[in-house]
TrEMBL record:
<dbReference type="InterPro" id="IPR032820">
    <property type="entry name" value="ATPase_put"/>
</dbReference>
<feature type="compositionally biased region" description="Basic and acidic residues">
    <location>
        <begin position="10"/>
        <end position="20"/>
    </location>
</feature>
<feature type="transmembrane region" description="Helical">
    <location>
        <begin position="82"/>
        <end position="103"/>
    </location>
</feature>
<feature type="region of interest" description="Disordered">
    <location>
        <begin position="1"/>
        <end position="20"/>
    </location>
</feature>
<feature type="compositionally biased region" description="Basic and acidic residues">
    <location>
        <begin position="121"/>
        <end position="130"/>
    </location>
</feature>
<protein>
    <submittedName>
        <fullName>AtpZ/AtpI family protein</fullName>
    </submittedName>
</protein>
<feature type="region of interest" description="Disordered">
    <location>
        <begin position="28"/>
        <end position="50"/>
    </location>
</feature>
<feature type="transmembrane region" description="Helical">
    <location>
        <begin position="58"/>
        <end position="76"/>
    </location>
</feature>
<feature type="region of interest" description="Disordered">
    <location>
        <begin position="110"/>
        <end position="130"/>
    </location>
</feature>
<keyword id="KW-1133">Transmembrane helix</keyword>
<keyword id="KW-0472">Membrane</keyword>
<dbReference type="Pfam" id="PF09527">
    <property type="entry name" value="ATPase_gene1"/>
</dbReference>
<keyword id="KW-0812">Transmembrane</keyword>
Amino acid sequence: MAGPKGPGRGKSDQDTDTIRRRLDSLEGKLGEIRARHNPKAEEERSERGRAMGNAMRLGTEMVAGVIVGGFIGWALDQWFGTAPIMMVVFLMLGSAAGILNVIRSAKAMQAKGEPLPGKDLPPDSSEKDE
C-alpha cells in the first residue's frame, strides 16, 4: 500500500501554512475588537440598569399606596353606605403614604450608595449659569 489513506492525511505543508495564516489574522482581528471594547461601558450599563430598577421600585411604591388607599376607601364606602367620602379620604391617605414610602426608600438607597434615578443626567441649564 503506497501513501496514506483517509481524510486529512497527506495534506501538504502549504495547506497548514494557509490555515495558520488565517488563524493569525483572525486572532489579530479579535485583538482589535477586544481593544475597542471598553470594560467601563459594561459597568455603566449595569449602573443604568440598577438605576432603572430603583426608578421602577419608587414608582411602584407610589402607585401601590394610592391603589391600596383607594381600595380600602371603596370597601369602607360599600360597607357603611357612605358614597364617595371614605374613598376620597383614603385616596388622600394612600397618596401621603406612597409619598412617605418613596422618600424613605430614596433615603435608604442614598445611604447604601446605590445610584438614584436621574443621577447620571446632565446638569440643568440654571446650574450651568452659576
